[in-house]
Amino acid sequence: MVSIIESGTLLLALLNPFLLIIYLVDPMKKLDQLQFQKVLIRAGVIAAIVFCCFAVLGDAIFSTINAEFASFQMFGGLIFIIIGMQFVFKGPTAIEILQGEAAHISGAIAMPVLIGPGTISASVVIGKRHDPLLACGIVVIAVFASVAIVILLKLIHDYVQVRREALIERYIEIAGRITALYIGTVAVEMVMTGLRSWLMKV
């Protein structure tokens, strides 16, 4: 039971709903609660399916395309470096692919917001720790726990914004730029980790 909780907590911590809400500030402002819930749930379903595939198949997914996981880490790191730089210069509305119509942004939320090298690595680890069915159950619960927390934060945002709109705007602006430092640091670490792993196998 302890191992199950640890596995679920690992993925939930990497999904980090309190960081996700900063990524999603633009759709959060533009969509009403029902639309936001639908978009986020669809994105959660996409992410859960991908994570379950990695939990069940593990490193075999990369071996079938004759690629190393280190390559995925480096590419994912580069994507997040670009996002981090956009956050620095543009603030929390930096991820422009999240600024379209509600019907088209679920996939953009799933990748790269939910699905990344960290969360995929965690899914592989969970798959190695548990039987496939249990691993998939842990993944699904962690993803939708994160989705539920983000939906709750959207409710709180909408309630508080009516009374403290200027304060909320200022908080989001500051939090978004602080987030950029975190994103950039993690992204560079992803690239360096992938590079070290690749060099060790050369």
Automatic annotation (TrEMBL):
Statement: the UniProt record of this protein carries the keyword Cytoplasm: no
Subcellular localization, as worded in the UniProt entry: Cell membrane
Keyword vocabulary terms for this entry: Cell membrane, Membrane, Transmembrane, Transmembrane helix
Membrane topology listed for this record: Multi-pass membrane protein
Principal location class: membrane
Gene Ontology CC, one term: plasma membrane
Annotated TM spans: 6-27, 39-57, 69-89, 101-126, 132-153, 174-195
Pfam family name, one: MarC
InterPro entries: Multi_antbiot-R_MarC
ATP-binding recorded as keyword: no
Entry's family note: Belongs to the UPF0056 (MarC) family.
Protein name: UPF0056 membrane protein
Organism: Zooshikella ganghwensis
Lineage per the UniProt record: Bacteria, Pseudomonadati, Pseudomonadota, Gammaproteobacteria, Oceanospirillales
